[in-house]
Amino acid sequence: MAEKNNLTTSWGAPVGDNQNSMTAGSRGPTLIQDVHLLEKLAHFNRERVPERVVHAKGAGAHGYFEVTNDVSKYTKAKLFSEVGKRTPMFIRFSTVAGENGSADTVRDPRGFAVKFYTEDGNYDLVGNNTPVFFIRDAIKFPDFIHTQKRHPQTHLKNPDAVWDFWSLSPESLHQVSILMSDRGIPATFRHMHGFGSHTFKWVNEEGEGVWIKYHFKTEQGVKNLASDVAAKLAGDNPDYHTEDLFNAIENGDFPAWKLYVQIMPLEDANTYRFDPFDVTKVWSQKDYPLIEVGQMVLNKNPENYFAEVEQATFSPGTLVPGIDVSPDKMLQGRLFAYHDAHRYRVGANHQALPINRARNEVKNYQRDGQMRFDDNGGGSVYYEPNSYDGPTESPENKAASYAVSGVADSVAYDHNDHYTQAGDLYRLMNDEERTRLVENIVEAMKPVSKDEIKLRQIQHFYKADPEYGTRIAKGLGLQVPQQV
Question: Taking every annotated instance into account, which residue ranges of this chain make up the domain Catalase core (predicted)?
Answer without folding.
Answer: 8-392
